[in-house]
Design goal:
The chain has 220 residues and is mainly α. It contains ten helices and six strands, in the order ααββαβααααβαββαα. It has a two-stranded antiparallel ribbon.
């Protein structure tokens, strides 16, 4: 217990977001080093063996022999651009989400999104008639869960998307309200409704017992 407490006290106090990015980057570096050195293992190269051990397979037998893959696949990337774009989206939206969520809740959102993506992939992979088993790696499902949680937790936040521009939910909601008020104003002040709401004209000299009309009092 003393060793664990010592590690906790001396470990850098990084956020859960930082630890997720470090884990993804570390796995990527290990895989790329194995691919660059050309190390071989039983049945193929060391890099391919590592990816196969960490990737989520659509084959039921492979999934049963590697039950940890629904977790490890969301930390594994093989292509550098795949890693960069996923980590950029995770950093941008994860930083926003940490303003209202704790690190534990952000980690829970990340893992839940990754597991949901794994379940969807297995559902289609195990039920579809595929000619050969396929494997999946990447944090896309987990990152999209963080993006969705940010949109739900911060609905009034204005963000700028590349090639799209500013996205402001409040602005669109305000535009709908203004259009609704204009529609009500046009209906209320339309000529047909004004003519129906006109009251009959009364004359002060109208004798008692006579019913006035719209154009004036009825003559005696």
């Amino acid at each position: 217990m003393a060793v664990i407490e010592l590690i906790r006290n001396r470990a850098p106090r990084w956020s859960a977001l930082t630890w997720i990015i470090i884990a993804c980057a570390a796995v990527f570096v290990i895989v790329r080093i194995a691919a660059a050195t050309g190390a071989s293992a039983a049945g193929g190269s060391m890099a391919q063996t590592l990816v196969d051990r960490l990737a989520l397979s659509s084959d039921a037998a492979a999934l049963m022999s590697r039950p940890w893959t629904p977790f490890t696949y969301m930390f594994t990337h093989y292509e550098v651009m795949h890693l960069i774009f996923n980590m950029l989206w995770l950093y941008w939206f994860g930083t926003l989400l940490l303003t209202v969520f704790s690190g534990t809740r952000l980690m829970a959102v990340y893992l839940t999104g990754g597991l949901a993506g794994a379940a969807t992939y297995l559902l289609f992979g195990l039920t579809a008639s595929l000619t050969a088993p396929h494997s999946m790696v990447g944090a896309s499902a987990a990152v999209l869960a963080v993006v969705a949680a940010t949109a739900v937790a911060l609905p009034r936040l204005r963000i700028n998307l590349m090639l799209i521009g500013p996205v402001d939910r409040t602005r669109h909601r305000g535009a709908r309200r203004r259009n609704h008020r204009r529609h009500i104003h046009r209906r209320t002040h339309s000529p047909s409704r004004r003519s129906c709401s006109r009251r009959p004209v009364y004359d002060q000299d109208t004798p008692n017992g006579h019913i006035p009309t719209r154009d004036g009092p009825t003559p005696a």
